[in-house]
Design goal:
It is a single chain. The chain is of the alpha/beta class. It is built from 4 helices and 5 strands; from the N terminus they run E-H-E-H-E-H-E-H-E. The protein has a 5-stranded parallel beta sheet with strand order 1-2-3-4-5, covered by helices on one side. It is globular, with a radius of gyration of 12 Å.
Length: 110
C-alpha cells in the first residue's frame, strides 16, 4: 500500500491515471515528477479514499487547485509535503495557511 515513484520522469497524466486504480494505496510519493499537475491529480482524488500520505515536493505544476482537490478528497489524509513555486502558479500563502489549519500529523511546505 506504499508507492514511491520519486523522480520518475515517465510519470505523466496517463501514468497517474493508472495509479488511481491502486485503490488500497495509503502512501503515495510523487516528489519531483515534473509532469504531475492539477489535472493529473484529479483521478487520484476520485479513487484513493484510503490515502493517508501524499508527497508532491518538486511537482511545480501542482497549484492551489490540485491541493484543494486533494485535501477535500482524501478523508484520512494525515501527511503531506508540497513545494511552493516562485512563479505565478503554485501554492499561494492562503493555501499554505489552509493546510496549516488541517489536522495533519506531518506537513512539509518548502
Amino acid at each position: 500500500e506504499v508507492l514511491d515513484v520519486e523522480r520518475n520522469k515517465n510519470i505523466k497524466e496517463k501514468g497517474v491515471q493508472f495509479l488511481a486504480s491502486l485503490t488500497n494505496l495509503r502512501r503515495l510519493v510523487l516528489n519531483d515528477c515534473k509532469f504531475v499537475n492539477d489535472k493529473a491529480i484529479m483521478p487520484l482524488c476520485h479513487s484513493l479514499k484510503k490515502l493517508e500520505s501524499l508527497h508532491l515536493r518538486g511537482c511545480k505544476k501542482v497549484t492551489d487547485i490540485g491541493v484543494q482537490m486533494a485535501i477535500r478528497s482524501f478523508p484520512v489524509l494525515r501527511a503531506m509535503s508540497i513545494e511552493r513555486n516562485a512563479t505565478s502558479k503554485g501554492l499561494s500563502d492562503g493555501m499554505v495557511m489552509e493546510l496549516m489549519k488541517l489536522n495533519l500529523r506531518e506537513l512539509h511546505v518548502k
